[in-house]
Amino acid sequence: MRAMHRLSARAVATLGAGKYADGAGLWLHKREDGGGQWVLRYTIHGRRREMGLGAASAVSLKEAREAAERWRAMVRADKDPIKERERKRREDARNIHLLKDIADDAFEARKAELKGDGKSGRWFTPLELHILPKLGKVPVADIDQKDIRDALSPIWHTKAETARKAMNRLGICLKHAAALGLDVDLQATDKARALLGRQRHKPENIPAMPWRDVPAFYSSLGDGSVTHLALRLLILTGVRSGPLRHVREDQIDGDVWTIPAEAMKGRKDATVDFRVPLSAAALTVIDQARRHAREGFLFPSVRRGVISDMTMSNHMMRAKMDYRPHGFRSSLRDWIAEMTETPYEVAETVLGHIVGGSVERAYRRTDYLEQRRKVMEGWSDWVCGKAVTADDSI
pTM for the whole thing? Predict the structure, then answer.
């Protein structure tokens, strides 16, 4: 019979790097850094296998011997310890995983592909508000189409877009659960859609201020506050509020603002940044904003981070306006169409839209920066109250 219990607790702590047998297939693998790992070697069905039993710093010699004996008994019963351990883990997971746990795990797994690692909460919010309060404590394997229907029916028609996002996020969670080996119904969301029926709600465009009214509103933003300056730069550049709120001083180089590709909505090619030409008026706003800068951000909030999406919207709401900040992109686009001779490709690129198919874009290497610069100077002249007529078409 093979010798057993060759090692001592002192030897486990003091041995140098190498592999040391305790007997009957139990080995201690020591590393150069002093750490170690317990390994059980065994043969099952003609295959030689090695099974980790834990780190030597966490599992004592006595505990390693006891664990090794339990798994050797399983080998004698003609069962593979590694496969049995995995089967037990799957059974345990199936018994304890609630939807809220799966949702958290799915969110963590996807953070890297979300803008800003999902810190804004937009990915998780539809689940958090409309799914988890009703289904969060339900075992994910028990969720069916009727549960989903009951959770989303209150908003299915009144908040159609939010309901659609919540349904999609839930579908991702179910796929994540299936990947973990849980027994879930991957068709549950499709069945729930069939039960809920076609959505009646029609999405409404964000209210946009008519371009002729923009100069008057711009002139009212004169107190030099973070909110006023952020709105001024938003109007002058035509960018979305996300990149605007997160603009950093190191993104500004001369009269060009470079927005990182990952911050651009709808751009799948994460290697392409977007350059924004800055007019003289925009540069003046940026210089004024530098007085408020904190941790590199030009538009910091009062407490921490940057101003929220609602900060600028609330300003317009308090002024009893139906318009919203995002609508200034439409104001700019309408001004370009009515007051300039700007080619379609240039006009769309002003707003950061992707123009043309993948083949066309592969051959077109320009981002029309100089043409866009002329357009934005003309827009700034208009916004700042300088006379721009149809005769001054760009």
Answer: 0.54
